[in-house]
Amino acid sequence: xxxxxxxxxxxxxxxCLTLLIWGINFLKGRDIFRTExxxxxxYKNVGGLTATTLVTLNGLKVGYVREIxxxxxxxxxxxxxxxxxxxxxxxxxxxxxxxxxxxLGSKVVKLNLGKSDKLLQANDTLKSQMDVDIMQQVxxxxxxIKAKAERLIENLDSIVSKASKIMNDDSQHNITESIRQIxxxxxxxxxxxxxxxxxxxxxxxxxxxxxxxxxxxxxxLKVNSEKLGHIMNNFSTFSDSLSKMEINKTIKHIDGSxxxxxxxxxxxxTSNGTLSLLVNDPRLYQNINYSTENxxxxxxxxxxxxxxxxxxxxxxxxxxxxxxxxxxxxxADSVTFKVQLFASPSPVTLxxxxxxxxEEVFETKSGDIYYxxxxxxxxxxxxxMILNKVQGAFPEAILKxxxxxxxxxxxxxxxxxxx
Length: 419
Prior knowledge:
This protein is about 50% helix and about 20% strand. The chain is an alpha+beta fold. The strands form three sheets. It has a seven-stranded mixed β-barrel.
């Protein structure tokens, strides 16, 4: 059978109307293809509840609010029509509680099951409950805190006003000065602490050694306590002996000896007698010093030229000792003498202060050693005088002898000088 164009249009319109009705009910939360049970709940205030609001049971969606309208008795109460599409049986005493689902204030109807054995039937009225609004809960929690904050602000205001009266210019200046002094005191304490740490750190070993020594001393005292007892007994016996001695007579004898000693010292000081002249006459010291210098020169010359003073005879095994006074005779022209002052591994400037008092100083080098000497003279006696003069400053000074510019022994030089 072939459909006409009109039939096709009619079928299309019916389908569109069906889809439109289903879509409108779907947007309202209804499902026209499912069976629903309707229950009612009566409220004084629904708190912003609207149609299509979800109805939940233990967090599961079981229905929706189909309609909200005023009661017919003109009391102003609101009747909420609840449609449940879940076949879960509701016992008698079940309540419908309007609650907030989130912090933004969205509403939801929660079903709280009763404990009765009887079941509710369709179109029965549920008990109504109104959950406390979140804003109301917040206000209830904040209200005590707000009251406490207001009292705290009042107290702070009172404290600030009293502090402002106390904190005048003089008080502020005193407090500032006190803080400055406290800061200065803390700085000084830090410096003192740092100094103490440095001292203790530097003397740690000394302190440890001191304590160790103290420990050893106490140990020795403990070990030798018996000996110390004997010493104290001996000291007591000695003090008893001293108390029995005739100390007064001894002191009188000592006083007499001191008087006699003072008398002798007065005689020495007043130049009476030989001893006083020896102590007070400066010429005696000068003569002794001069004689000592001459004796030193004689001994040096005797050590260097023994044959000038001691002669051995080839026939006679005895010996003759001749003490000869050096003369100013001239040596041969080809024999010269000089005084070698000292030798040094490093050079010394000829203008050095150590050569003070010497007219001419000459430097010669042999290998790595520098030798410093006086000028050469043909007079042996003159060179001897120079040696005696410089020997105090240069103990190592010795005589050197040369013939025609070549060094020879002093013994040969003196022989040539005699010829």
